[in-house]
Write a structure and sequence with these properties.
Layout lengths: L1 H34 L32 E5 L21 E6 L1 E2 L8 E3 L1 E5 L2 H5 L2 H5 L3 E9 L5 E7 L6 E8 L3 E7 L1 H5 L6 E5 L9 E11 L7 E11 L7 H7 L3 E22 L2 E4 L3 E3 L4 E6 L4 E9 L3 H12 L12 H16 L2 E4 L3 H14 L4 E2 L6 E3 L5 E3 L8 E2 L1 E2 H4 L3 H8 L1 H18 L5 E3 L2 E2 L8 H10 L8 H13 L10 H7 L10 H22 L2 H10 L7 E2 L4 E2 L27 H4 L7 H6 L4 H14 L36 H14 L16 H11 L1 E3 L5 E4 L6 E5 L5 E7 L7 E7 L2 E2 L4 E3 H5 L3 E9 L2
Parallel strand pairs: 31-35
Antiparallel strand pairs: 1-2, 2-6, 3-4, 5-10, 6-7, 7-8, 8-9, 9-17, 10-16, 11-12, 11-15, 12-13, 13-14, 13-16, 13-17, 18-30, 19-22, 20-21, 23-24, 24-25, 26-27, 28-29, 29-34, 30-31, 32-33, 32-35
Helix pairs in contact: 1-7, 8-21, 10-11, 11-12, 12-13, 12-15, 13-15, 15-16
């Protein structure tokens, strides 16, 4: 009995020790993953090579609230637009303000809304440049903290004799916290401290259509005024928010409502509003562009303020703030502390990032991987507010359907359908499901599927109808509930065959009768044709799955329409007139040729993701196609400067992202080494861990998602069920594909110079070609993908 009891006690002790070790190890891994994220990546670059990513360290995944600094340089070139699409440019010396609502890597000037900033002298408050260029202050990176979950910067006022102050920022989905520390007041170098809210702030400073601010002061007539909140709105009409649906519905403009308040009424020395004439003391309301409010801090050297935002109303902005920031302690009506908010954000990122766990490989590649995964999850934006309502594409309030958790928008569809959406489908299927259902809600509310969904409307930007690609993925990969498959199919089919107020195909009758878009009215008609053919291939797959044989045949035939704009003489896609004459460029390397969208003839030459084998056949032989693709990829390495588009493979834009993976379809494994060689070069040279680590605008995580996929040894052909396999960057990878299932990826013979694949096994069965199917990859709960590596 004593021996049995001893064994029992020892077993319990070992179990406790193992459990403790497991928890500590998991906690260590979670913390180590967070420490691998470099939030500054993508905040530097020149011209076309700027990542356009905001300094996003405070933001939770998919949040509407994205508090981040807007910066500018010193004269003579203080604000070059292409370097500030995300608001923050790493080489800059000045912070202009802190924006709450921003774009994520898009190559356009828009949003950058609701600016907060402090000044520490009355002279700076009254200077006109406070209105024109924000209440700017000097900062440096050695006094900045950009670790995930928070942002911190110590600053010095712009004017002479200005003191030092600092701010810590953390965020929720719809609200944020700013802790201001007026260091100079504590040290006695300045006596004043003002907090300004720029109600009319936009990224460019000139996109505001309307704005308002209301400063709420208790005991305003007495000797002891207390600040309670500022609230108001801004209507912005920028490069995207001023076009498409917003132009047709509102004459241009998205309206965002905001609230800024303290946790309890706070004493102030003075308060007021400001406009182009300067500050107006003791006034509490103003509207128009520009406009803003201010308070002068009293009795202390610190000030904590909370912000809330909404697309619905000021009341909803306040409700979002109070619901999201209220203390989790039962019976406690106070607001959360900074550390509680920051730790909550860190926990959210930890859960998301740890769905993919990697080991082996270099620390540099691990940093690049988790930074890229972080970028991929900054957007799309979840817009269902804390009341359970969202602003729909009919400018009306809606509640969620039973199967949908949140309404998502900010979908840069021409970009994200390629890599970001397939990543969500595999690793975050609950988000992908919500995105697909959101597209259907947009269709129900507006009658059209969007091309560029921004907030509650379609900016109608770029080409194609690639919402159909996302919906095809959602059906083929089973992220969309079965009951909505018919709704999705009807939306896809109607967009392809019927006119719509937004996003219709041009010359639709001619397209369906003749198999291409003519260039008589559209100079880039070849691009339109090949991208619509891609969409039709996705529709065909869904039609076949649903048993609509006639539709499947029709759209399969249409998926080959790209062949009708392929010039057999030059072997390039070229615009074609109604009478059948090709208009091919004499210079296929002109990246600004108006015959093509955002690129040249080479960039579109290898675009037929719905039919790679058919494209290869157009070149006369597999060897000829391989030779041309090798030229395209090899010549891209001549010039690694990203400031201008590379006329060959351009890793900084989306249209040719899949090109190196077409080697996989030529002749089994024969050209896989070519593919691996070029993919590894892109991974090594076009992606780094420094601020200049992206070769172009990230476009809502698209470039970053390309790196995540290729580093895992896979690449998706979106809208189909096909993946290309390539050598992974890590020895072991574990991908959580559901709550209880995972994909294990192992690289045998992994070594720094082992870049090539001898063979690949999926669940013990050797692949006959470097291509596999989604159902084979995740059709069973726990799959194992094994790579056998060699060096060359």
């Amino acid at each position: 009995q004593n021996m049995s009891a001893s064994w029992h006690s020892l077993s319990l002790l070992l179990l406790v020790l193992y459990s403790t070790f497991t928890r500590l190890n998991a906690a260590h891994h979670q913390q180590s993953v967070l420490s691998l994220v470099r939030t500054s990546v993508g905040t530097q670059g020149f011209g076309f090579g700027h990542g356009a990513v905001p300094l996003s360290s405070a933001q939770p995944p998919f949040s509407f609230s994205r508090p981040s600094p807007q910066t500018s340089a010193l004269a003579p070139n203080p604000y070059f637009e292409h370097q500030h699409f995300g608001g923050y440019n790493w080489p800059d010396a000045l912070i202009r303000c802190f924006q709450i609502v921003t774009m994520v890597g898009a190559g356009v000037s828009d949003l950058g809304l609701v600016g907060l900033m402090a000044v520490v002298t009355q002279a700076q408050l009254e200077e006109r440049h406070v209105v024109q260029d924000g209440a700017k202050a000097f900062f440096s990176h050695d006094q900045e903290n950009t670790e995930l979950g928070t942002y911190y910067a110590s600053m010095r006022g712009f004017l002479p004799d200005s003191g030092e102050f600092a701010v810590r920022v953390a965020s929720g989905a719809f609200s944020s916290i700013f802790e201001w520390d007026f260091i100079g007041m504590r040290q006695g170098t300045h006596k004043n401290a003002y907090l300004l809210l720029d109600a009319a702030r936009t990224l460019t400073g000139s996109d505001c259509k309307d704005a308002s601010v209301n400063v709420v002061i208790s005991n305003a007539q007495g000797s002891d005024p207390h600040f309670e909140e500022m609230n108001g709105h801004i209507q912005v009409a920028g490069s995207l928010s001023g076009r498409g649906y917003y132009q047709k519905k509102f004459g241009g403009g998205i309206t965002v409502y905001y609230v800024m308040r303290t946790s309890q009424p706070t004493p102030v020395h003075s308060y007021g509003i400001w406009d182009t004439k300067g500050p107006h003391y003791s006034r509490t309301q103003i509207s128009g562009c520009p406009s803003g409010g201010f308070i002068q801090v009293a009795n202390g050297t610190t000030l904590t303020v909370f912000t809330g935002i909404s697309l619905i109303s000021v009341d909803e902005a306040r409700n979002n703030l109070m619901r999201e920031m209220r203390s989790p302690s039962e019976g406690d009506s106070s607001l959360m502390s900074f550390s509680q908010i920051s730790e909550r954000t860190q926990a959210q990122w930890s859960e998301k990032l740890n769905r993919i766990q990697v080991s082996g490989g270099t620390q540099e590649n691990q940093i690049k991987f988790y930074t890229a995964l972080h970028h991929a999850l900054l957007a799309p934006t979840q817009y269902t507010e804390l009341s359970g309502q969202y602003m729909g594409f009919d400018a009306k309030l809606h509640k969620m359907n039973a199967n949908q958790t949140s309404f998502y928008s900010d979908l840069s569809i021409w970009d994200v359908h390629r890599t970001t959406m397939p990543l969500l489908a595999l690793v975050y299927p609950e988000v992908h499901s919500d995105v697909a259902q959101s597209l259907l809600r947009m269709y129900e509310q507006s009658g059209c599927l969007p091309k560029w969904a921004l907030a509650y409307g379609d900016a109608d930007c770029m080409i194609g109808q690639h919402a159909s690609v996302i919906l095809s993925d959602a059906i083929l990969k089973r992220t969309l509930p079965n009951a909505q498959w018919m709704d999705a199919y009807n939306a896809m089919k109607n967009m392809a065959t019927k006119p719509c107020a937004m996003g219709s195909r041009p010359d639709m009758d001619f397209y369906w009768s003749n198999g291409y878009i003519p260039n008589d009215r559209y100079s880039h008609s070849a691009c339109l044709t090949v991208e619509f053919a891609y969409d039709d291939g996705c529709i065909a797959r869904v039609a076949e799955l649903l048993g609509f044989t006639q539709d499947a045949d029709r759209f399969t035939n249409a998926s080959r329409f790209y062949r009708n704009v392929f010039d057999p003489k030059s072997k390039f896609f070229c615009p074609k007139s109604k009478d059948g004459a090709f208009d091919c460029p004499s210079n296929h390397l002109n990246v600004f040729d108006q015959r093509y969208i955002e690129g040249d003839a080479w960039h579109y030459r290898f675009f037929a993701p719905q039919d790679p084998e058919g494209l290869i056949s157009l070149f006369g032989s597999k060897e000829q196609f391989a030779s041309e693709l090798e030229t395209f990829m090899s010549n891209a390495q001549w010039d690694q400067w990203t400031g201008l588009p590379n006329p060959y493979y351009w890793s900084g834009n989306e249209h040719n992202l899949a090109s190196p993976f077409f080697f996989a379809f030529i002749d089994g494994w024969k050209y896989a080494p070519n593919m691996q060689k070029h993919v590894r070069w892109i991974q090594d040279y076009m992606y780094t861990s420094d601020p200049n680590g992206l070769s172009g605008n990230d476009d809502y995580g698209t470039l970053s998602s390309w790196f995540v996929w290729s580093a895992m040894g896979l690449y998706p052909f979106a809208g189909t069920t096909r993946y290309v396999v390539i050598a992974p960057l890590f020895e072991n990878i574990r991908v959580q594909t559901s709550a209880s299932c995972a994909l294990e990826i192992v690289a045998h013979g992994f070594a720094p110079n082992a870049h090539y694949v001898d063979k690949v096994l999926l669940n013990g069965i050797q692949l006959e070609e470097p291509v596999l199917d989604h159902d084979d990859l995740v059709g069973r709960c726990n799959s194992k993908l094994e790579f056998f590596m060699y060096s060359q």
